[in-house]
């Protein structure tokens, strides 16, 4: 309550009005953000352990303070640990409070009217941090087993009340925190095309395909119709005779 009294309610700071103002050597004396932990739960569980994923998505363009992010993290973590188990989920805060908020402090003691300068020199001093979020940006994400999906949605519903503005709870079609759909993930895993990589997964197809590289001043011998032709490989350029090249044929030039 004392912190709210010092910085004011969220309606004073939620509107995005100015350019990003991060902490730097020109912006010193910034207090540390209230949120210090961004991954909660079983964050080292493999990608195959938690297939279900649900997001809390912002439906407004606004500032979200670090105090609100910390309160939402605590509320979501407390509910999931109580009803699903502390080893049955992974919660991740997806936004970071890098934007610095300023305040032009006014004196309210007796005789303050002699000391105050009003709006003269009104560039305030740093008093907190917030995250600038856009419409459709994910605030919180929870991955767990399918049996705990209703607990994850209820936990995010309770975390919604810690934020200003409007948010939506959206169930992801992806496998956990990966970028692959659940059907594709299972199919490609059976084909050994997917390799687990911590909480994510790697697609091995780009490494399986034949990649053609272009090396300068390298001589290729091409056997065509029992004749040997020597081609000099040149770098793809944007000036000279190679500028108006045909796709796929520009770097081959028959040697005279």
From TrEMBL:
Which Pfam families does this entry report, sorted A to Z?
Ribosomal_L16 (PF00252)
Gene3D superfamilies, per database record = Ribosomal protein L10e/L16
A Gene Ontology cellular component where this protein is annotated is: ribosome
Q: What PROSITE patterns has UniProt attached to this entry? A: RIBOSOMAL_L10E
Q: Which SUPFAM superfamilies match?
A: Ribosomal protein L16p/L10e (SSF54686)
Instruction: For this entry, list what GO says about its biological process.
Output: response to UV-B; translation
Q: Which GO terms describe its molecular function?
A: structural constituent of ribosome
| Superkingdom | Eukaryota
The entry's keywords: Ribonucleoprotein, Ribosomal protein
Name the family: Belongs to the universal ribosomal protein uL16 family.
Q: What is this protein called?
A: Ribosomal protein L10e/L16 domain-containing protein
Q: Which organism is it from?
A: Gossypium trilobum
């Amino acid at each position: 309550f004392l912190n709210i009294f010092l910085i004011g309610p969220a309606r004073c700071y939620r509107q995005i009005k100015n350019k990003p103002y991060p902490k730097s050597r020109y912006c010193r004396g910034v207090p540390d953000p209230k949120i210090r932990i961004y991954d909660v739960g079983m964050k080292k569980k493999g990608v195959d352990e938690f297939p279900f994923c649900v997001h809390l998505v912002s439906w407004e363009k606004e500032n979200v303070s670090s105090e609100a992010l910390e309160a939402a993290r605590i509320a979501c973590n407390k509910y999931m640990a109580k009803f699903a188990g502390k080893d049955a989920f992974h919660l991740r805060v997806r936004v970071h409070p890098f934007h610095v908020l300023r305040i032009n402090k006014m004196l309210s003691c007796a005789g303050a009217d002699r000391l105050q300068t009003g709006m003269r020199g009104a560039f305030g001093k740093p008093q907190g941090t917030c995250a600038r979020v856009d419409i459709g940006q994910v605030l919180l994400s929870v991955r767990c087993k399918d049996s705990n999906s209703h607990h994850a949605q209820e936990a995010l519903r309770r975390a919604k009340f810690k934020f200003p503005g409007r948010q939506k709870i959206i169930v992801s079609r992806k496998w956990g925190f990966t970028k692959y759909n659940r059907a594709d993930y299972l199919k490609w895993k059976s084909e050994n095309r997917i390799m687990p990589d911590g909480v994510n997964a790697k697609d091995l197809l780009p490494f399986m395909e034949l990649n053609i590289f272009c090396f300068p001043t390298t001589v290729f011998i091409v056997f065509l119709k029992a004749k040997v032709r020597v081609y000099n490989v040149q770098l793809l350029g944007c000036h000279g005779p190679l500028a108006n090249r045909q796709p796929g044929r520009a770097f081959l030039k028959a040697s005279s």
